[in-house]
User: Fold this.
Amino acid sequence: MSKDQKDDEGKGKTGVLTKTRPKTKKPSMYKVLMLNDDYTPMDFVVHILLTYFQKSEEEAVQIMLNVHQTGVGLCGVYSFEVAETKVMQVIDNARRNDHPLQCTLEKE
Ligand code: TYC
Assistant:
C-alpha cells in the first residue's frame, strides 16, 4: 500500500467530536435551623449543639444565645439526608426530655 493510499483511509468519515458535559448536579444543601422558645433550658440547647452538630463549647453557647436573642440560628449545613436526620434526632431528644425545642431544615 502506497503512502497516499494509507492517508486516504477514513476519507469522508471526518466527524466533529463534541465534548458533552455530563448531566450531573451537585446535591442541594440544607440549613439546619434552631428556633427559640420560652421553656427549653439554655443548658439543654448547648448540650444538643455539642452532641449533634460537633460544635465547641464556645460555639455552642454563641449559637444558643443568638437563637435566644434573634429567634432563630444556624446549626450547620448538610445534604438533605443528613439534615433531615439531625432534625429528627434533635426533636426526638427534646421530646424525650419534655422540652418544646424546635428545629427545622431549609434549602440553602
Ligand atoms: N429562650 C430559652 C430560655 O430562655 C433558651 C433557648 C435558646 C431555647 C435557644 C431554645 O433554640 C433555643 N430558656
In short: The CA atoms of residues 20 and 58 lie 48 Å apart. Helices lie at 3-7, 42-52, 57-70, 80-96. The longest strand covers residues 72-79. The chain has a mean pLDDT of 89.
